[in-house]
Structures are given as C-alpha cells and as structure tokens.
Write a structure and sequence with these properties.
Elements: E1 11-13, E2 16-18, E3 22-24, H1 41-52, E4 57-61, H2 74-77, H3 90-103, E5 107-112, E6 122-123, E7 143-146, E8 151-154, E9 157-158, E10 160-161, H4 164-183, E11 188-193, H5 201-204, H6 219-222, H7 224-237, E12 243-247, H8 257-267, E13 273-276, H9 299-306, E14 313-316, H10 323-331, E15 338-340, H11 343-346, H12 350-355, H13 396-399, E16 408-412, H14 416-427, E17 431-435, H15 455-471, E18 474-476, H16 483-486, E19 491-496, E20 500-502, E21 529-533, H17 537-548, E22 552-556, H18 571-580, E23 585-588, E24 592-596, E25 600-604, E26 610-614, E27 617-620, E28 624-626, H19 628-632, E29 638-643, H20 653-664
Parallel strand pairs: 3-4, 3-15, 4-5, 5-11, 6-10, 11-12, 12-13, 13-14, 16-17, 16-19, 17-18, 19-29, 21-22, 21-27, 22-23
Antiparallel strand pairs: 1-2, 7-8, 8-9, 20-28, 24-25, 25-26
Helix pairs in contact: 1-3, 4-7, 14-15, 14-20
C-alpha cells in the first residue's frame, strides 16, 4: 500500500475522473505576464507546471478587463489582460493552455470572480456590520466603504440596490462566459463566493446582503443568486459539467457553520465542489503570524459539512502542503479534496515525492507570500523565495548547464545560501564539504527559534540540515576555513557564503544599544521598557518579539508606518494584525533618533522638535554589512571561485537561494 494512498486515490466529480485529490486553486504570481494580450509563455509554463506537479484540477482566472491598466494600484495595473473580446486569435493560446494541462491527465477550471456590477453605482446593497479588513475597498474600481456611515459608497453616494433585471444580466453574462471557455477546452468552473471579496460573495454573507426581497434574509434567500447562476451554467454547459464554489463557511458576525450546512443541502445537484476558504483574504494566505504548523482554518468546517451527508465534495484550502496532513484529512473523512496554491510551485518535485512516500523531503513553503506580490514599487518580478526556478523555468535550458564531471567543492558558510549551494552541488553529483565556523548550521536562521511567528523559517532550516545529511555532504562544524587551510585541499570549486553582520546606526551613544543579533534569544537580559530604533520589517519583528515576552516596547521609525518594506499584500497586513493585538507595543512615526542616553532616547519629530522617551534597554538597527573582504580573501584557493548570498550583496533568502542555484548550475 502506498504511504499516501488516500490523497493519491482517484475520485469522480461530474463527468470527470480526477487522478488524485489535489486541486490547484486560483493563483498566479502576478508579474509573470508581460504586455501580451494573450497568456504569455511564462504564464502557460506556470499553469501547466501545476498539472505536471500533481494537481488534478488546475484553476485559471478569466482576465479580460482591458481597463485594468488604469487600476488604482500598481498590482492591478500589471495583472494579465487577455483580449478575448476583440482578438479571436487569443483563443488559440487559451486552447493550447488547456491542451497542455490535459497532457498531464489534469483538468482545467475557469475561475470567475467579478468585483463590480455592470453599472458601478449598483451593488448587492451593502451595509457592513463589521470592518471588512479592506477586502471590499481594495477590490472595487470606483467604490470604497465609508466606515463612518457603514454604507458602500460610489462617487460619494450610497450604492444603489441591484435590480432584478441587473441580477439576471449578471447571471447570463457569467454563464455565457463560462460556456465560451468550455468551447476552448475548459472542463469545469470555479465561482468565487468567499469572504465578501466579490459581487458574488456579497450575496451570500449577511454582513453585506441587507436586501429585503427574495434575495436577502435567510440563507435560502441569500443563496438564490448562486442557485440561479448554477442552473444557468448547467443549462448551457450540460448537467455533468462540474461547478466548484469557493465559500467562507463561517465568519465573525456573519455566515455560520449552520448556514453552510444548510447551503450544502440547498445546493445538492447543482454544486459539485465546495472549496472552503478562511474568513478573510489574509487568513487565506497564511503566514507565520496568523497560522501554526499542522493547523488549518478550514478543515473543521469541511469535516462538519461532509458529516452532514452531502454529496458535494468538500475541499479545504489554505496552507496545506504537509503530505501527512493531507493524507490524514482524506483518510479520516474530513475532506474529499485538498486545495493548495503555493503547494504546487514551492517544490517542483512535490507530486513525485508524494508518489514515492517521501513527505519528509518536501521543500517547505516559508509563507513569505512574495510569490503573490513581492513589491508594489518594483522590481516587477515574480519569484519564490525557496524555489529559484519560479519565473525563469521556461528559460532554464538557456540559463543553466548540464552537470559536468564530478568536482571537489568547498562551501564556506553554513547559512541558508551556503546550505542550498552545498545541497545543489551534491544533487548534481559533486563531492561537497561544507565549512561552518560555529557549532550549528543555519546562519541567521539560528535566530528564529525564539520568535513564535518565525516557525516557518525554523521548519525550513531543519529541512535543509536534514537534506544535507541525506545528500552525503561532509559538514565541518566549529571550523573557520582560511585560505591557508583550504588551498592544500585541492578544491576545484570554492563557494564563499560568509553572510553579513548587523550594523549600528551612527547616533551618539549608540554603543549603549544592542543589535538584532544580540536581542533575539536574549530578551531576558533586557529591562522592562525597551526602545527599538528602526521600523523596518526587521525592527518591527524585533519589537514584536520583545513585546510578546512582556516588555513595554516603543518603535521609532522614519516612515509613517511599520514594516513598510515587508511583502505588501496580505503579509504586511498580517504583521499589523499581529502587533495590533499587543497592547504593550507602540510606535512613533516620522521621527529620527538623535541620541541614546543611559536611560533615555532622544528623537526629533517631523517639525524639528526634540523629545525624550525613558527606557531601560535599546535596540538599534543600522542595516547589514556584507562580509565581502573575508570572502574575497579566499580567492585563489580553488580553480573556480564564487561569492554568494549576503557576503556578495546583502539580500534575503530569495537572493541567497537564487545565487546558490545559479552558481551551482554552471559547473
């Protein structure tokens, strides 16, 4: 019997037989697409790779709004835009996309998620009862929620209630669109009715649906729009054409699990799959701040709905990557399918490892969310921090070289970049020795043990150490490699990965402050009142760590907010949600620290006024200093010499991993 027998077993949905229980949910690293008005090669390669990597269903969104280039934010301006309405030849590439997904025995689903009504002055009729975490205001082209009066606003006016004629028009337009994609080779559709983010979903939630006619009130009425849409889709596409619906099974102050169980009963015969999403978009993109290892927001809801006896297949989503957890969810009867997104592109060998029963070898996602949107100020690249092939996979045959004759390789430095370089080189058949000056591998990842929200990085560090041991890399701890010691060893390749050290800012009295490295794991040495100078992501995390451990913390930042350099969508918001729950953490924006005393810090505000804040301990962040000179001193100890990671240029896990991959794939 296979180790992952249940999750790898086939299942039937509608007229489709799925090759396993994995579903790739609607996801696309946003900057893979260029100005092409058809799916670019990068996009096709990415979508098809999800099928190759095990997804029985791959979800692909319909992007046809050619006005998107005028969007209100830099992310939206760079979304894919497919000119299907005006250029019939674009259909050729859509057909090729579907055909290549089918090549791997997978099916392709069209994701439909309209964010606004045909007339921008109309909506379901929204009177929010709770703060909607920005999901509405960030998704409307023309509207925003005025939380003071609690009414959806359009052009300064309250939105008008959708008429019955407009509702029928929305149903018909979307059903026709789905049918059109069916003619291009699509096998099913996915309707976004989750966390009040779309026009569809605002019908289902009592938070946003305040109608008093047959479309509002009890769940039977709030589901009417969904039922009408599903009936029309089935009429056009065939009764065996599967329909997947993304829903939020329960939300604070809104939909209850009892509502969702009732919805399953109502939708029998029309909906084939319920994909359960968390109560808001941030929780549905789990990070170290809002999730824990082996814990999932939607699994209990899936189990509750499935136990009701529904024939609708239940699919929880959100953070599922651990193969043992996926297997248990199916085998225990809590779910029929497992949804994922990052799952299928973090580890390019995920499916193969599942079939071989090698769950412990799956490369873990560090939940940084940079694959989604890494930046809103550029560079406009999509990537994965731990899988360097994302974004360049379609060009690897030109960027890399086949492994040559086995070489004797030395890697100096056991941080994440050095460990990855050693692992890549060993996987390519080379004999590798890894030198680490301390008694533990990990580099800066060794500092991640104490902050509770850094568990994904601890998980990643332990994975790398485990893989190095399996790969047969010779690991020399407590060994500071020098040129004199390395040169006689006759190495063919030497890779320097010596990292970087934190710098203190140039402030009078800064010698009284501690660096981040001297803080994490040492908070017991700090006094009650702490000041952190620097509100970057690193400074914010340091402040959170101290506050979590009972200190009263004030962060001083030059910016007008905290962690503004963090991943901008979902990730930064989860940081804010986390520190908002800490009453002993405060920050002062738009200030510059000018002096550190024995028991105070002086700072200047935006108007030039000086202030003092009393404190017992100070942490000061002044950036990082690359160990370039130490690395360059090793040049000449081998035939080929490379510098990677922070010692070449201070970066992060992504840049260090990319360095390790590119260097080791040149020999």
């Amino acid at each position: 019997m296979k180790k992952y027998q249940s999750v790898l077993s086939p299942i039937k949905v509608g007229n489709l037989v799925l090759k396993n229980r994995f579903v790739s949910g609607n996801s696309l690293p946003h900057f893979l697409q260029g100005p092409e008005t058809y799916p670019a090669e990068t996009v096709i390669n990415h979508v098809v790779s999800c099928a190759r990597n095990g997804a029985a269903i791959v979800t692909f969104a319909d992007w046809t709004n050619m006005n998107q280039r005028n969007s209100f934010n830099e992310d939206g301006r760079r979304f894919p835009m497919f000119n299907l309405d005006n250029d019939p030849s674009v259909e050729n590439y859509i057909c090729q996309l579907a055909d290549q997904v089918h090549y791997y025995g997978s099916y392709i689903s069209l994701a439909v998620m309209p964010f606004a009504a045909p007339d921008p002055m109309y909506d379901v009729y929204a009177v929010p009862a709770v703060d909607m975490s920005g999901t509405t205001s960030t998704n409307f082209r023309d509207g925003q929620v005025d939380y003071n009066v609690g009414v959806m606003m359009r052009g300064g006016q309250a939105a008008k209630e959708l008429t019955h004629e407009m509702i029928h028009e929305i149903v018909e337009q979307n059903a026709q669109r789905i049918h059109f994609y069916q003619t291009l080779g699509f096998d099913l559709c996915t309707l976004h009715f989750a966390y009040r983010a779309t026009l569809f979903s605002r019908f289902l939630s009592p938070i946003t649906n305040k109608r008093t006619d047959e479309y509002g009130g009890p769940i039977e009425n709030r589901a009417r729009f969904l039922l009408e849409l599903c009936r029309r889709i089935k009429a056009l596409c065939g009764k065996e054409f599967p329909i997947e619906v993304q829903i939020t099974p329960e939300e604070p102050g809104g939909t209850t699990i009892e509502d969702t169980v009732a919805l399953a009963r109502i939708c029998e015969g029309l909906v084939d799959i319920f994909q359960f999403r968390a109560s808001d978009a941030n929780k549905n993109h789990p990070t170290g701040y809002n999730s824990k290892l082996h814990q999932y927001y939607t699994l209990d809801a899936s189990a509750a709905v499935k136990s009701s006896g529904t024939s609708i297949l239940c699919e929880p989503i959100g953070g599922f990557q651990d193969l043992d957890d996926c297997e248990d969810a199916i085998a225990s009867g809590k779910a029929d399918l497992i949804g994922g997104a990052r799952t299928f592109f973090v580890d390019p060998d995920y499916y193969q490892k599942a079939k071989e029963g090698r769950g412990e070898d799956v490369l873990p996602c560090i939940r940084c969310n940079k694959c989604h949107v890494p930046s809103l100020t550029g560079n406009w690249l999509s990537f994965c921090s731990v899988n360097p092939e994302i974004g360049i996979a379609h060009k690897l045959d030109k960027l890399t070289r086949p492994a040559g004759a086995p070489k004797k390789v030395a890697v100096v430095g056991g941080g994440p970049a050095g460990m990855r370089a050693a692992l890549y080189a060993a996987e390519r058949g080379h004999a590798v020795t890894l030198y680490e000056a301390t008694d533990r591998l990990g580099g800066q990842l060794k500092l991640m043990d104490d902050p509770t929200f850094k568990w994904p990085l601890v998980h990643y560090r332990e994975y790398l150490i485990r893989q190095l041991q399996k790969a047969g890399v010779t690991i020399l701890l407590n060994t500071k490699a020098t040129a004199e010691e390395l040169e006689p060893e006759g190495y063919d390749v030497l890779i320097a990965a010596l990292g970087a050290s934190p710098k203190l800012p140039q402030i009078p009295g800064v010698e009284k402050a501690k660096t981040v490295f001297e803080t994490l794991g040492h908070e017991a040495e700090f006094g009650k009142r702490c000041v952190v100078i620097g509100g970057s992501e690193s400074g914010t995390e340091t402040g959170i760590y101290l506050a979590e451990n009972g200190h009263e913390v004030t962060v001083l930042t030059r910016q007008d907010g905290l962690a503004l350099d963090a991943t901008p969508i979902h990730y930064r918001e989860t940081i804010q949600e986390f520190y908002d729950e800490l009453p002993n953490l405060d920050f002062i924006p738009c200030v510059t620290a000018t002096e550190i005393g024995d028991s105070w810090v002086e700072y200047r505000d935006a108007d030039g006024n000086l202030h003092r804040i009393d404190c017992d301990s100070v942490v000061a962040l002044g950036g990082m200093e690359a160990h370039q000179q130490e690395a360059m001193a090793l040049y000449g100890c081998a035939k080929d010499f490379y510098m990677i990671g922070d010692c070449r240029s201070v970066g992060n896990i992504h840049t260090g991993t990319r360095d390790a991959y590119s260097v080791t794939h040149q020999f």
